[in-house]
Write a structure and sequence with these properties.
The complex is a heterodimer of chains A (111) and B (166).
Chain A lengths: L2 H21 L3 H31 L9 H32 L13
Chain B lengths: L2 H22 L3 H21 L3 H26 L11 H24 L18 H10 L2 H23 L1
Helix pairs in contact in B: 1-2, 2-3
Classes of the chains: A mainly alpha (111), B mainly alpha (166).
Chain lengths: 111, 166
Amino acid sequence: MPIQYYIYLALSLFSIGVVGVLTRRNAIIIFMCIELMLNATNLLLVAFSKMHHAVALASNAATQVGIEGQLFVFFIMVVAAAEVSVGLAIIVMMYRNTHSVDINFLNRLKN
Amino acid sequence: MAITHILFWFLTALALVSALMVLLSKNPVYSVLWLVAVFFAISGHYILLNAQFLAIVNMIVYAGAIMVLFLFVIMLMNLDKETEPQKDIWMKIAGAVSGGCLLMVFVSLVKQATEMTGKEALLKTGTIGLIENLGKALFSDYVVPFEISSVLFLSAMVGAVVIGKK
Protein backbone atom coordinates (compact mmCIF):
# COMPACT_ATOMS: atom_id res chain seq x y z
CA MET A 1 0.00 0.00 0.00
CA PRO A 2 1.54 3.39 -0.92
CA ILE A 3 2.73 5.32 2.11
CA GLN A 4 0.78 8.41 1.02
CA TYR A 5 -2.53 6.74 1.83
CA TYR A 6 -1.45 6.15 5.40
CA ILE A 7 -0.17 9.72 5.68
CA TYR A 8 -3.47 11.13 4.42
CA LEU A 9 -5.43 8.94 6.83
CA ALA A 10 -3.29 10.02 9.79
CA LEU A 11 -3.49 13.68 8.78
CA SER A 12 -7.28 13.50 8.46
CA LEU A 13 -7.62 11.92 11.90
CA PHE A 14 -5.26 14.55 13.36
CA SER A 15 -7.22 17.41 11.78
CA ILE A 16 -10.51 15.98 13.06
CA GLY A 17 -8.93 15.99 16.52
CA VAL A 18 -7.84 19.61 16.11
CA VAL A 19 -11.33 20.66 15.00
CA GLY A 20 -12.77 18.85 18.02
CA VAL A 21 -10.47 20.69 20.41
CA LEU A 22 -11.41 24.01 18.81
CA THR A 23 -15.18 23.54 18.61
CA ARG A 24 -16.32 21.55 21.64
CA ARG A 25 -16.74 22.98 25.13
CA ASN A 26 -16.92 19.82 27.21
CA ALA A 27 -13.50 19.23 28.81
CA ILE A 28 -13.83 15.44 28.55
CA ILE A 29 -14.56 15.59 24.80
CA ILE A 30 -11.54 17.85 24.33
CA PHE A 31 -9.44 15.31 26.20
CA MET A 32 -10.77 12.53 23.95
CA CYS A 33 -9.85 14.54 20.86
CA ILE A 34 -6.29 14.80 22.20
CA GLU A 35 -6.26 10.99 22.46
CA LEU A 36 -7.44 10.85 18.85
CA MET A 37 -4.50 13.03 17.76
CA LEU A 38 -2.07 10.82 19.68
CA ASN A 39 -3.45 7.75 17.91
CA ALA A 40 -3.10 9.41 14.51
CA THR A 41 0.61 9.97 15.17
CA ASN A 42 0.95 6.38 16.39
CA LEU A 43 -0.52 5.07 13.14
CA LEU A 44 1.84 7.29 11.14
CA LEU A 45 4.86 6.04 13.11
CA VAL A 46 3.95 2.41 12.49
CA ALA A 47 3.41 3.04 8.76
CA PHE A 48 6.79 4.78 8.45
CA SER A 49 8.46 1.96 10.39
CA LYS A 50 7.08 -0.56 7.89
CA MET A 51 8.18 1.71 5.01
CA HIS A 52 11.79 1.80 6.21
CA HIS A 53 11.65 -1.93 6.84
CA ALA A 54 10.53 -2.54 3.27
CA VAL A 55 13.44 -0.48 1.93
CA ALA A 56 15.99 -2.29 4.13
CA LEU A 57 14.58 -5.74 3.33
CA ALA A 58 15.62 -5.35 -0.30
CA SER A 59 19.31 -5.50 0.62
CA ASN A 60 19.31 -7.69 3.74
CA ALA A 61 16.75 -10.39 4.47
CA ALA A 62 17.34 -10.56 8.25
CA THR A 63 17.35 -6.84 8.98
CA GLN A 64 15.67 -5.30 12.01
CA VAL A 65 15.50 -1.76 10.66
CA GLY A 66 12.31 0.01 11.64
CA ILE A 67 11.81 -1.65 15.02
CA GLU A 68 12.57 1.65 16.77
CA GLY A 69 9.41 3.21 15.39
CA GLN A 70 7.22 0.53 16.92
CA LEU A 71 9.01 0.78 20.26
CA PHE A 72 8.45 4.52 20.16
CA VAL A 73 4.72 3.89 19.68
CA PHE A 74 4.84 1.64 22.74
CA PHE A 75 6.38 4.41 24.83
CA ILE A 76 3.83 6.93 23.50
CA MET A 77 1.08 4.60 24.75
CA VAL A 78 2.80 4.43 28.16
CA VAL A 79 2.95 8.22 28.42
CA ALA A 80 -0.66 8.56 27.21
CA ALA A 81 -1.90 6.17 29.90
CA ALA A 82 -0.09 8.14 32.61
CA GLU A 83 -1.37 11.43 31.18
CA VAL A 84 -4.98 10.24 31.08
CA SER A 85 -4.98 9.17 34.73
CA VAL A 86 -3.70 12.55 35.93
CA GLY A 87 -5.86 14.53 33.51
CA LEU A 88 -9.07 12.78 34.48
CA ALA A 89 -8.22 13.34 38.15
CA ILE A 90 -7.86 17.06 37.38
CA ILE A 91 -11.21 17.10 35.54
CA VAL A 92 -12.93 15.34 38.46
CA MET A 93 -11.48 17.89 40.89
CA MET A 94 -12.63 20.71 38.61
CA TYR A 95 -16.12 19.24 38.52
CA ARG A 96 -16.20 19.07 42.30
CA ASN A 97 -15.28 22.74 42.60
CA THR A 98 -17.44 24.23 39.83
CA HIS A 99 -20.09 21.52 39.20
CA SER A 100 -19.44 21.82 35.48
CA VAL A 101 -16.90 20.62 32.94
CA ASP A 102 -17.52 23.53 30.60
CA ILE A 103 -14.18 25.08 29.74
CA ASN A 104 -15.70 28.56 29.41
CA PHE A 105 -16.16 28.63 33.18
CA LEU A 106 -12.44 28.10 33.63
CA ASN A 107 -11.45 31.74 33.10
CA ARG A 108 -10.84 32.49 36.78
CA LEU A 109 -7.12 32.94 36.17
CA LYS A 110 -7.86 35.79 33.78
CA ASN A 111 -8.47 38.46 36.44
CA MET B 1 -8.57 -5.83 -5.89
CA ALA B 2 -6.83 -7.87 -3.23
CA ILE B 3 -8.44 -8.61 0.10
CA THR B 4 -5.87 -6.47 1.94
CA HIS B 5 -6.82 -3.44 -0.15
CA ILE B 6 -10.51 -3.96 0.59
CA LEU B 7 -9.69 -4.27 4.29
CA PHE B 8 -7.55 -1.11 4.15
CA TRP B 9 -10.33 0.99 2.63
CA PHE B 10 -12.95 -0.48 4.96
CA LEU B 11 -10.84 0.27 8.06
CA THR B 12 -10.01 3.75 6.77
CA ALA B 13 -13.67 4.59 6.20
CA LEU B 14 -14.57 3.17 9.61
CA ALA B 15 -11.88 5.25 11.33
CA LEU B 16 -12.83 8.49 9.60
CA VAL B 17 -16.60 8.12 10.06
CA SER B 18 -16.19 7.16 13.72
CA ALA B 19 -13.82 10.08 14.33
CA LEU B 20 -16.37 12.46 12.80
CA MET B 21 -19.12 10.95 14.94
CA VAL B 22 -16.99 11.59 18.06
CA LEU B 23 -17.31 15.29 17.26
CA LEU B 24 -20.90 15.30 16.08
CA SER B 25 -22.64 13.31 18.82
CA LYS B 26 -24.15 15.46 21.56
CA ASN B 27 -24.08 12.80 24.27
CA PRO B 28 -20.57 12.26 25.73
CA VAL B 29 -21.23 8.55 26.28
CA TYR B 30 -21.84 8.09 22.54
CA SER B 31 -18.63 10.02 21.85
CA VAL B 32 -16.69 7.57 24.01
CA LEU B 33 -18.22 4.59 22.20
CA TRP B 34 -17.39 6.07 18.79
CA LEU B 35 -13.83 6.69 19.98
CA VAL B 36 -13.62 2.99 20.92
CA ALA B 37 -14.65 2.23 17.32
CA VAL B 38 -11.81 4.48 16.07
CA PHE B 39 -9.34 2.62 18.26
CA PHE B 40 -10.54 -0.74 16.97
CA ALA B 41 -10.14 0.48 13.38
CA ILE B 42 -6.60 1.64 14.15
CA SER B 43 -5.88 -1.74 15.74
CA GLY B 44 -7.09 -3.32 12.51
CA HIS B 45 -4.62 -1.17 10.61
CA TYR B 46 -1.84 -2.37 12.91
CA ILE B 47 -2.79 -6.00 12.23
CA LEU B 48 -2.79 -5.25 8.50
CA LEU B 49 0.73 -3.82 8.87
CA ASN B 50 1.75 -6.98 10.78
CA ALA B 51 2.40 -5.02 13.99
CA GLN B 52 0.64 -7.61 16.12
CA PHE B 53 2.05 -6.57 19.50
CA LEU B 54 0.95 -2.96 19.03
CA ALA B 55 -2.50 -4.07 17.83
CA ILE B 56 -3.08 -6.08 21.00
CA VAL B 57 -1.63 -3.37 23.26
CA ASN B 58 -3.76 -0.73 21.52
CA MET B 59 -6.89 -2.78 22.11
CA ILE B 60 -6.08 -3.59 25.75
CA VAL B 61 -4.69 -0.23 26.85
CA TYR B 62 -6.74 2.24 24.81
CA ALA B 63 -10.04 0.52 24.08
CA GLY B 64 -9.96 -1.51 27.29
CA ALA B 65 -8.47 0.67 30.00
CA ILE B 66 -8.43 4.33 28.99
CA MET B 67 -11.90 4.40 27.45
CA VAL B 68 -13.40 2.59 30.45
CA LEU B 69 -11.77 5.25 32.63
CA PHE B 70 -13.44 7.94 30.51
CA LEU B 71 -16.80 6.16 30.81
CA PHE B 72 -16.41 5.93 34.59
CA VAL B 73 -15.70 9.64 34.87
CA ILE B 74 -18.62 10.59 32.61
CA MET B 75 -21.01 8.40 34.57
CA LEU B 76 -19.60 9.69 37.86
CA MET B 77 -20.41 13.24 36.78
CA ASN B 78 -23.87 12.34 35.52
CA LEU B 79 -23.21 13.99 32.19
CA ASP B 80 -25.13 11.45 30.17
CA LYS B 81 -27.82 13.96 29.27
CA GLU B 82 -27.51 16.73 26.75
CA THR B 83 -26.26 19.36 29.13
CA GLU B 84 -23.46 20.83 27.10
CA PRO B 85 -24.16 24.47 26.31
CA GLN B 86 -23.44 25.03 22.65
CA LYS B 87 -20.74 27.31 21.43
CA ASP B 88 -21.50 30.17 19.16
CA ILE B 89 -22.13 28.97 15.60
CA TRP B 90 -19.42 31.33 14.33
CA MET B 91 -16.90 29.78 16.71
CA LYS B 92 -17.78 26.35 15.30
CA ILE B 93 -17.40 27.54 11.71
CA ALA B 94 -14.09 29.22 12.57
CA GLY B 95 -12.83 26.04 14.23
CA ALA B 96 -13.82 23.86 11.28
CA VAL B 97 -12.28 26.29 8.76
CA SER B 98 -9.00 26.50 10.66
CA GLY B 99 -8.83 22.72 10.98
CA GLY B 100 -9.50 22.39 7.26
CA CYS B 101 -6.74 24.91 6.52
CA LEU B 102 -4.33 22.86 8.65
CA LEU B 103 -5.29 19.72 6.72
CA MET B 104 -4.79 21.54 3.40
CA VAL B 105 -1.31 22.73 4.40
CA PHE B 106 -0.35 19.21 5.48
CA VAL B 107 -1.71 17.59 2.30
CA SER B 108 0.06 20.07 0.03
CA LEU B 109 3.31 19.44 1.92
CA VAL B 110 2.95 15.68 1.47
CA LYS B 111 2.17 16.14 -2.21
CA GLN B 112 5.41 18.12 -2.66
CA ALA B 113 7.61 15.67 -0.73
CA THR B 114 9.62 13.74 -3.28
CA GLU B 115 11.22 11.42 -0.71
CA MET B 116 8.00 9.51 -0.31
CA THR B 117 7.02 8.98 -3.94
CA GLY B 118 6.99 5.32 -4.86
CA LYS B 119 7.56 4.14 -1.27
CA GLU B 120 5.35 1.37 0.02
CA ALA B 121 4.33 0.41 3.54
CA LEU B 122 4.81 -3.33 3.84
CA LEU B 123 1.50 -5.11 4.40
CA LYS B 124 1.09 -8.59 5.90
CA THR B 125 4.83 -9.41 5.87
CA GLY B 126 7.86 -8.40 7.91
CA THR B 127 8.82 -9.72 11.33
CA ILE B 128 9.64 -6.52 13.23
CA GLY B 129 6.17 -6.21 14.73
CA LEU B 130 6.18 -9.64 16.34
CA ILE B 131 6.36 -9.91 20.12
CA GLU B 132 9.62 -11.88 20.05
CA ASN B 133 11.62 -9.26 18.16
CA LEU B 134 10.05 -6.29 19.93
CA GLY B 135 10.67 -7.91 23.32
CA LYS B 136 14.30 -8.60 22.53
CA ALA B 137 14.85 -4.99 21.47
CA LEU B 138 12.87 -3.64 24.44
CA PHE B 139 14.78 -5.61 27.08
CA SER B 140 18.25 -5.20 25.60
CA ASP B 141 18.65 -1.84 23.86
CA TYR B 142 15.74 0.03 25.44
CA VAL B 143 15.78 -1.36 28.98
CA VAL B 144 16.65 2.00 30.61
CA PRO B 145 13.69 3.92 29.08
CA PHE B 146 11.48 0.96 29.97
CA GLU B 147 12.47 1.17 33.63
CA ILE B 148 12.16 4.96 33.64
CA SER B 149 8.60 4.60 32.33
CA SER B 150 7.77 2.63 35.48
CA VAL B 151 8.91 5.64 37.53
CA LEU B 152 6.63 7.78 35.35
CA PHE B 153 3.72 5.48 36.12
CA LEU B 154 4.48 5.65 39.84
CA SER B 155 4.53 9.45 39.79
CA ALA B 156 1.31 9.53 37.74
CA MET B 157 -0.36 7.21 40.23
CA VAL B 158 0.74 9.34 43.20
CA GLY B 159 -0.35 12.49 41.38
CA ALA B 160 -3.78 11.12 40.56
CA VAL B 161 -4.33 9.99 44.15
CA VAL B 162 -3.16 13.32 45.60
CA ILE B 163 -5.32 15.35 43.21
CA GLY B 164 -8.35 13.11 43.66
CA LYS B 165 -8.18 13.08 47.48
CA LYS B 166 -8.73 16.80 48.03
